[in-house]
Amino acid sequence: MFDYTESVNSDFFYSAMMLNSDINYKTLNDLTEHNVINDYRALHNIDLLKEIVKENFDLKPETVHKVKGLIDSFSDIEKIANIYKQIASDNNIGVISCLDKHYPYNWKYLSGMPKVFYYGGNYSIVERMTLGGSVAVVGSRSPSKYAEYATDNICKALGEKGIAIVSGMAYGIDRQAHISSVNTSGGTIAVLAGGVDNIYPPKNRDIYELIRDKGVIISEMPPGQKPLRQYFPSRNRLIAGLSDCTLVMEAGSVSGTLHTASFAAGQGKEVFVLPNNIYYENAMGGLKLLEDGGNVLLNAEGVIDSVARSLMYKRMDMGCPAELYYQDQLKNDFSDQANIEALRELARVKPEVLTDENWKSIIKDSLTLRPMCADELCVLTTLPFYKVSKLLTELELNGTVCQDKGKYSLTFV
User: Fold this and answer.
1) How far apart are alpha carbons 399 and 392 in whole angstroms?
2) Angle between the N-to-C axes of helices 300-318 and 145-160, in degrees from 0 to 180, rounded to the nearest 10
3) What does pTM read for this prediction?
4) Strands (E), 139-287
5) Are 131 and 315 in contact (CB under 8 A)?
6) Closest CA to 31 of 60, 1, 70
7) Which of these, 42, 99, 105, 185, could form a disulfide with 130 (CB 3.0-4.6 Å)?
8) What does the alpha-carbon distance between residue 365 and residue 188 come to, in Å, rounded to a whole number?
């Protein structure tokens, strides 16, 4: 059972306040910009609220008016917050704040992410995905057998590489994505439009219980809140925000899946689309995304490559040494081909940590373009001639490359 501290009590109050008063993000921004409060938790203090109304602090008139309304409804909102807390306690639901160190890294630098959210299950999956990677998988609620098969195959492959699969626990593609990844090392994360305790759709009770047991379910909505229609687009932005890239497995021309893809693109993340029949109506939305520049989803390797790049930039942003990044890549067992872009980036910023085998992978990848002489490979790799010559000799001896008129090419043995 969770031990709800005073700060967590303020988190429940915040959720009750945002759903049951006129306080909104504009109000909070006005209060923080005028240094009236440091963070949202300060509003769980009736004396401070009265002081705000009394002193005004050069706030906007509508801000003062909304604070007055909060004072009038303060006791009612506290009662609602206590109801949330009781439901959370009864259902073993935890609370995470943007002020906590466990807040998802992927959300920290995106605007519009929740200040408070709730979870049930194994939260360590969310923490692991920061350096292990995460992929959103979305699609039709009535998918073709082809899309279901591809979802199963790709989600298992990604999950086995330690990449978490994020989806919305809807029928169809979402359901398949969760089932295929829940028992992998990456695990699965379900993001709900209603409270964590609210199973929706009801017929998905079996996978809800499976994810609560082996994965993790999260929601920005407080416990007890039913999933209203207007909450689903907001849920989709959270799915995209949690992930390093998004896979669209199948989508019609009018689909909530397209909202998730749009959020992902707006967040600067890659969107992959499973190619499909141009005469299949339920694939028109995905084909339109491809027409607009989406990446073609052919296999898991291209997705792993995208995640690897995201993880490298993430580590650099976190100030992690390149050596630490590379060690984790080895631990996750990324294949050379899937990781080649990450290897090239590492060669650029920290070449001394690469082994001879890593350099051979870069050389082999370079030779897939065309045959090259040793001097050309020196320029591409920035390695000295003696080093490139040694690596090429070893590749020749094991039959990987051959030489003709001074140029090296792959033997494809």
Assistant:
1) 10
2) 40
3) 0.79
4) 164-167, 188-191, 216-219, 245-248, 270-273
5) yes
6) 60
7) 105
8) 33
Tokens of 169: 């626990």
Q: For residues 71 and 113, what is the distance between their CA atoms, to the nearest angstrom?
A: 26
Amino acid residing at 3: D
- Tokens found for residue 41: 């938790």
d(CA 391, CA 388): 5
Tokens of 61: 């008139």
Whether the CB-CB separation of 191 and 164 falls below 8 Å is answered with no
> Which region holds residue 319: left if phi is over 0, alpha if psi is between -120 and 50, else beta?
left
Q: Is the separation of the CB atoms in 311 and 332 below 8 Å?
A: no
CA distances from 40 to 31, 145, 184 (A): 9, 47, 38
Cα angle for residues 128, 361, 150 (degrees, 5° grid) = 55
- Measured between alpha carbons, how far is 251 from 61 in angstroms, rounded to an integer? 46
